[in-house]
Each structure stands twice: as structure tokens, then as C-alpha cells.
Amino acid sequence: MEKQYTIPIGPVHVGLKEPITAWLDLEGEKIVGATVRPGAIHRGIEFMARERNPIQVIYLAERICGICSFSHITAFVRAVEDAAGIPVPPRGQYIRALTLELERLHSHMLWAGVACYSIGFDSAFNLGMVLREKVMDVLEVLSGNRVNYGVGTIGGVRWDITPKVAAAVREMVKYYRAEFYPFYEIVTEDPIAHARMRHVGTLSYEDALRYGAVGPTARASGVRCDLRHSSPYEAYADFDVTPIVPQDYYGKAYGDVFDRFLVRVHEVYQSLDIVDKIMDGLPEGDIVWEKNATKVLLALKKAEGTGWSAIEAPRGDDSHVVHLAAGDENVTWWKVRAPTYANAVSWPVMFRENELADAPLIINSIDPCISCMERILTTDVGRGDQRLLTRKELLKMSREKTRRLMGK
Amino acid sequence: MNLAKYLEILPKSLWVTTCNSGSCNGCDIEIVATISPRYDIERLGMKLVGTPRHADVLVVTGPVTKFMTEKLRRIYHQMPDPKVVVVVGNCGASGDVFYKSYNLDGPVDRIIPVDVYVHGCPPRPEAIIEGVAKAVLKLENLKASLEAKEEAVS
Ligand code: SF4
User: Fold this and answer.
1) Three-state SS annotation for chain A
2) Given ligand 1 and candidates B27, B32, B97, B118, which is best to mutate, with the most ligand atoms within 8 Å of its CB?
3) What are the residue ranges spanned by the domains of chain B?
4) Which end is more exposed in chain B, N or C (fewer Cβ atoms within 10 Å of the end residue's Cβ)?
5) Are the beta carbons of B65 and A147 separated by less than 8 Å?
6) Interface A-B: count of C-beta contacts within 8 A
7) pTM to 2 decimals?
């Protein structure tokens, strides 16, 4: 047997957008085991919420994660509405669904771009980022912000769809229908991208179920799960959303990084269809239950109970549970379970039998959102001093592998 | 000093490295957006590099959690002189929404010296570029004083 080495990746790593540490046990180039240590950027958000009232917590919930910010506030306000029995007008529900889909679009495109970047396919990364700017523009027209939009509030939404926004949305859909296909083609037809992603980081159907993977990660392994399909919320009950699994499109689900790429690409198209349907069926009426925030707070102060909500965020199921006590203005307690937490459990399985150069790609392949995941984990002491493979070296290795494949 | 004049003839190509010390990611995606073709910092001679050992500018996001304090310090010390630090985002500048957390050592200026603050939650890519460009002025001053010191020694 070859000698085993343990190599840490992270917490700060150029292939990762956020701090997380993984220790990989290597035999030569092969990964035989992996330990993941989360908790680097735990900020204690759930604790802070206990000193704030629900409207203030919306801003905190938005900053759990900047990429799926709207998913988090939607899940949070839905939980509060559940606890306090506040209804949401239909137009408000439609605008929420629209913003959720816009968020999914930009998140999936960002992921597709970053995945290309981590295999050294920079031209595809740039193409993906150019495409993504279009939906950022639409979000900016809708809300005035690019990242933390502040669209949702308790009982509805804060921004209405004006004719100007509607025109921007329609134009965006047209633009993507025409422009997104070349990106898809460039990546999927490329033999190198194929070689780098196919049969890498495989998660079988059984393992996906056993380790409780959710969202596109589970769907890429062939699991038909999508909360928009199985327990529709907001306006989704009006549209027929079917989970996208690779076997429906390509005959077989491998559950590898390439399948995760394909699933996300098809979800972009699915989102475009949903956006179209939302715009066609947009009902008239109010966008919010009560405009006056003081009145909302008074109603919430009287409310007593536990509310619950789960939605399909771009990365999988995001569930929030909130408890409100009568007579208390603040949130009594709040629990968030973000999709990355469920998906990160399967990292060690995906790592096994892969090469070290594939590690950043595999970590990125579940679209990790570390800041979502780390709210109430206690940090343990790191494993002392270890030899560090610098992030530069790793990126270099990853890119060299691409070059090697190209040479063949 | 006139920033516009400086940008016209950038005295040096800035190499930038980033460190996420516990941010919500919002600022980080905007930093990624600055290297994308629409904002394209490379046309200004700036470049995102993977290691602090090559960098002139350190861009820090996030309110610095307890775990990241040591890491941030280490990254700062790995950078060669002269160096400047830019904090991107409100939460790195003041704690912002995270101000009452039990797990923060930040904001960033309690850990390492900061030269430029870029406000916003998150700031727009244009603002981030402006912040990094402002670092040029500081970097030039630092360089001049370092050179003066060296001359005095020799
Ligand atoms: S400043 Fe705002 S957007 Fe930026 S990392 Fe902090 S909380 Fe997130």
C-alpha cells in the first residue's frame, strides 16, 4: 500500500468562494477519505434574531446568504405568516414567485460560470457572467438593488410590477431564449469539459437518498424531488412544475458533476417558462396585507404560536421555523435549515476515488452556500498545524489536468 | 489628490486578493461581477490573484468571525510591503446587521489596519472598483516612504 497523506483545503481557498475546511486523505493522487469541518463563518444569526422584531429579522434573514437572499426571507416571512395567521394577497404571491425564479436564474448562471472557472474554462465563465448580468438588471429594475433586494415583507411584497418592470422581464425572457443555448452548447459539446466533469464526484441514487441530498444535487442523481412540485407554495400551485431529472432528457442519471450541470441548465429553461406563466397570469389587486409596518407589528405582538415553512431555494429545500409569543415583540426563537447543510453531508461520498485535482470542482458542484449553512454550529478546534497545499497550487493542478486532457 | 488623474496613468498594475471573513456572500458575488466582462477590472490593469504573496491589495469582506481572525492576520502578514487593505461592505466596516453577534472579533479594523472602506450592503461593482482605485494613492505614498527609508539606510 502507498503511504497515505492528509491534505487540508481551505478555509480560504481560491477555488472556493467561502471559507470551509476539508481534509483529504490521499493515496498518491487518489482521494480515499475526506473530513469536512464547517463553522468558519458562523455568525450566530439565529441568536441575534431573538433581540429583534420580525420586521427587523427580515433584513437579517436576507443576509444569511447573499445569493439566495430572497429564498431565505420568503421562507422566514411565510413561517411568521403561518404563526400569526396573516394572509397574502394573490398578486403578492405571484410577485414572490417571480422574484424566486429570477433568483434561481442568477444563482444557476453564477454556478455554471464558476464551475467552468474551476476547471480553467475561463471563456465559458465569462460568457456565463455576461448572461447573468441581464437578470441582475431586471432585479435592479424591480427593486433597485442587485443582490439583497428587500422585496419581501410580512404579508406580501414591497415592490409592485409596473409596466416598466413587466417590459424588462419580457425582454429578459426573450434574450435568454435566444442567447442561453450557445453557452449550453459550448460547455456540453466541449470534449475537455466533458472529460473533466463526467464520472467525477459521483453520487448514486441510493446514496443521494441515504445521505439526504436535496435540490439539484439530488435531482442530478435521479431523485424526483422538488418542493414546487410536491408541496407547492405561493403561486406555484397554478403552474405545473415537474422536477428535472437527467434520465428524462438523456436516458440515464449518472449523478456526477456533469449531470448537476445539465440539471441546472434545464432548470434555467424551466424558470423561464414559469416566469412567462407568471407574467401572463398576474392577478390584479393589493400586493401586501397591510402597508403600515406599525400595524403589522401590533398584530404580530398579539400572535402566539409556531410557524413553519419550506421552499425550494436554488440549492434545495430551505426550511424555517419561527416561534412568536403573545405580548413579546421579538422573535422567541427561529431555526433555519439551509439546503447546503443537507448536501454537504454527501461530500465525503463524492470525494472518494477521485483525484485531488478534482476536489475544488466537487466542492463547488453542490453549489455550496457556506454562509447559509453556518448559523448555529459550534466550532471545534482545528486539527493543529498541517502541511498546507496552497490554494494556488491546487488551482494550478486543476488547470494542469485540463491541459493534460487537451494534449491527449 | 486627483483620483481621475491617477487612474488615467495608473502607476502600477494592482494585483488584488480577497478574503471572506464571514460575509453573507453578497459582497463576494459583486467582487466576482467586477472581473466579469461588463465591469472588467482587467481593462484598468487590475487583476484578481489567488495568493496573498503576489498581491498589493487585500480586499476583505465580512465581519470577521472568531475562527477567521487568525487566518485573516496570517493572510495580511503574508503580503509583501507596501500593501493596502480595502474593506468591502458595511458588515466589514462596522458589523452592520451582525452587530450583536457573540461570535465576532470584527469589524475588520480591529484586526488589521484598513486603508479604504467601501460602503453598501453590498456595494455596486462600480463602487468596489473605485475603492480599489483609491488604494493606488495610498500605495504610492507607502512606496515613496519605503524608498526613502531604504535610501537613508544605504
Ligand atoms: S456588507 Fe452586506 S452584502 Fe456585504 S457581506 Fe456584509 S451583509 Fe453581506
Assistant:
1) CCCEEEEEECCCCCCCCCCCEEEEEEECCEEEEEEEECCCCCCCHHHHHCCCCHHHHHHHHHCCCCCCHHHHHHHHHHHHHHHHCCCCCHHHHHHHHHHHHHHHHHHHHHHHHHHHHHCCCHHHHHHHHHHHHHHHHHHHHHHCCCCCCCCEECCEECCCCCHHHHHHHHHHHHHHHHHHHHHHHHHHCCHHHHHHHCCCCCCCHHHHHHCCCCHHHHHHCCCCCCHHHHCCCHHHHHCCCCCCCHHHHHCCCCCCHHHHHHHHHHHHHHHHHHHHHHHHHCCCCCCECCCCHHHHHHHHHHCCEEEEEEEEECCEEEEEEEEECCCCCCEEEEEEECHHHHHHCCHHHHHCCCEHHHHHHHHHHCCCCHHHHCCCCCCCCCCCCCCCCCHHHHHHHHHHHHHHHHHC
2) B27
3) 13-153
4) C
5) no
6) 125
7) 0.86
